[in-house]
Amino acid sequence: MSKSELSGKVQTVLGVINPDELGITLMHEHLLLDITCYFYESEYASVRSFKDIPFKPELTSKSYELYVHHLDGGRMYDESETIQEVTAYKNSGGNSLVDTTSIGIGRDPLGLARISRATSLNIIMGSSYYVTNSHPENMDQKTESQITNEIIGDITIGVKDTNIRSGIIGEVGNFWPLTKNEIKVLLASGKAQKETGAPITIHSGLGDDAPMGILNHLIRGGAKPTNCILGHLDTAIQSTLHFIELAKTGCYLEFDIFGWENTGMFMDDVINMPNDGGRLEKIIFLIENGFEDQIVIAQDVCRKWHLSRNGGKGYDHILNNIVPRMEKIGISESQINKLLVKNPAKALAFE
Ligand SMILES: [Zn+2]
Description:
Elements: H1 3-6, E1 10-12, E2 15-17, E3 25-29, E4 33-34, H2 45-48, H3 63-69, E5 75-76, H4 79-91, E6 96-99, H5 109-119, E7 122-125, H6 144-156, E8 169-173, H7 180-196, E9 200-203, H8 210-221, E10 228-231, H9 233-236, H10 240-247, E11 252-255, H11 276-288, E12 295-297, H12 317-328, H13 333-348
Bound molecules: zinc ion.
Zinc ion binds near residues 28 and 302.
């Protein structure tokens, strides 16, 4: 697929569609995934005992240990389980989603195509690389232009010999401060956008300056802010001034961890982990400041305990619980339509 063939279209794992065919779209989810790159060995024997035990819902009360000292909870390998879980989203009115799984965390083109066929959901697949600890061993040796060409190949030809093409660059993974290799990947991702017109989606590290710092590297590589989606803003930015500064660039502002309440994340950290109410307050603040055309949302389902079957909120939380709440707190129907339909359609269209 050439740049001109892709221009104005959205590329799903089953081919190219028009943006108005997307309907309700979640912008940042994971269907099949291995997120064990965050695992590290605990100092303590009692915690080490967690490492290899199979996930079970009762473990969720140990959630901080689950995030970093346990493997199985971060392995979403079961396609039939995923199909059941994501069908609940479809049955609630969902039509499309972005699987932001990038290289290094189990991206699975054939699996995504099978799930798309089984559920009739439009699925947009990622490309490029996640955070440093998921990079391949030879990442230091890879040049920026090699990475650029890998991304362009995934978008225009397909991943390896699958003929299944990525429709978005990312999630491009970043800590804050950035590592040397993360900067290289950001520059390559920016360049690949310039060459293909594909949108970019970002996993931001934590810090008021992080999203803007990351965006500046993308721009340096050749990206346009208006084709970039800055993710995890729920936690990345605490200061309203930084929100406004970022929004003024014209980039998309993504609140993508709806439903992550009491999951243990940042339990031991200085980061203020908002609940859904806090997320909605931030969204209303941005709407009131004139940025309703740039906001997109998701749930970033990426652990076994996020699934409904394990007591999590599942893929249908936003449609079943958050949309009614939005209506009650005065977000208008047309604004909700922007967050779920219109803004994703604009954000996912190739330039
Ligand atoms: Zn993610």
